[in-house]
Amino acid sequence: GVNALIKEDKVLQATFPNVRSEHSLVKKHLSPEVWAKLKDHKTKTTNSTLMDCIVCAVELDNQHVGIYGADEDSYRDFAPLFDPLILDYHGLSSSFSHTSDMDSSKVKVKIEDEGPIVSTRIRVGRNIEGFGLSPGITKQQRIDLEKMMEKAFGTLEGPLAGKYFPLLGMDSATKQQLIDDHFLFMEGDKNLQLAGMERDWPEGRGIFHNAAKEFLVWVNEEDQLRIISMQKGGNVNEVFERLAKGIAAIEKSVATSAGKKFQLHPKYGYLHSCPSNLGTGMRASVHVHLPGWVKAGRNFLKARCEQLGLQPRGSRGESGGDTGDLFDISNKHRLGYSEVELVTKMIEGVNALIKEDKELQASFPVVKSEASLVKKHLSPE
What we know:
The protein is of the alpha+beta class. The protein has helices spanning 2-15, 25-29, 32-38, 50-59, 72-77, 79-90, 139-153, 172-180, 190-195, 236-258, 291-296, 298-308, 339-363, 373-377; strands spanning 117-126, 162-166, 206-210, 215-219, 225-232, 264-265, 269-270, 283-289, 310-314, 326-331. The strands form two sheets. It has an eight-stranded antiparallel beta sheet with strand order 2-3-4-5-1-8-10-9. The protein has a two-stranded antiparallel sheet with strand order 6-7.
């Protein structure tokens, strides 16, 4: 037994990757057996290896998931690692299956009080079969996909019609306008760089938006397509309806002109570069003022959102810092729930938060001693 262990140890020293992200799901689920079985395999679509997929967990020490799909093949070829990791992240059993439902007419609830809500935004990711996902996509695949999408955007009609702006060769005035509109995605994200998603920047990338600037598509960022519907105020139903129509129009155009479909896994739904976005890839959110919850404490707001299946952020995003009483509230889940279910859950949760916020504004004491134990332990309940 010891002889076997020593022999195997030498092999592991020579070949097994040193995963720096100690608390990542890659570290948890990557066994010597899985590594030995998969380490030399290369995917057909982009010629990618398992090491290409887990490079962020290996090179960085701050990853939670730590793996990206290089292409559609990755989720099949490297399933012995992807499958348990995906189920672990999403808290699902192996018997689950994902069902998509973009029928906006099935959302039977609405925001009851739009007063505190500044804006609404719903986004999804989509990737097209035959092309690598962003970590593995080749330069030519990226260019070909951009050309295909330019043609697809040209077929959009009515309120969805607009203009495509390629990043390559973009003039300074257009760039500044897109920055002012908060539409422009930029390079420089360490995770995306290390995973290979910013290769050949900015070639093959761009932004489409309609005339009203309420329907937007990013091309070849973290996913091939990041499709966004948004507007001022709290009419979530209208935003979802526009998103559904836009996705359907793009899907139809791509199928008609190129004979291509969106990448759709029989178990995991719509495929994305990051396993955290599998399924719907949907983030339905509102920017909403919650001064009562600020009085009570952000930790209590976070706990309440957890109960409601929601995720609170500052209005500047995950790392935007304190933004007063303005919060970005979104659905927490992506996989195992349909789009209709997630939008419904978000609306119901936001209605509850707004109602409770009014009660907290009226009755909860303002604790000026921010560092006190009273502030820490006095909950709304």
